[in-house]
Automatic annotation (TrEMBL):
It comes from the Bacteria. This is Disulfide oxidoreductase. It comes from Leptospira kobayashii.
Length: 86
């Protein structure tokens, strides 16, 4: 599944680059951008052995489980693309 997703991501042009959304799984998010895991960690999601996150959960599910505002996390993730463009 992840290799298929990765190959689709590499085929996308900048104008059609995938963006993060709350229905996306954590695994898909990490596959889309190499620094997505750092963003999750900055919100204390998946950074510790006792608070690991499951890659098959959606971003929204993870946020609900840990009390993180989903729109704030999505904005932070999507800023990764802005950083790439600038």
């Amino acid at each position: 599944m992840y290799s298929k997703l990765l190959s689709e991501v590499f085929l996308m042009t900048e104008s059609t680059a995938a963006r993060f959304h709350k229905e996306m799984t954590v695994g898909e998010a990490i596959a889309i951008h190499p620094e997505a895991g750092l963003v999750f960690s900055s919100y204390h999601l998946g950074g510790c052995s006792h608070c690991s996150i499951n890659e098959v959960e959606t971003i929204e599910q993870v946020c609900m489980g840990y009390g993180v505002e989903v729109d704030t996390l999505i904005d932070s993730l999507n800023n990764l693309f802005a950083d790439d463009e600038g």
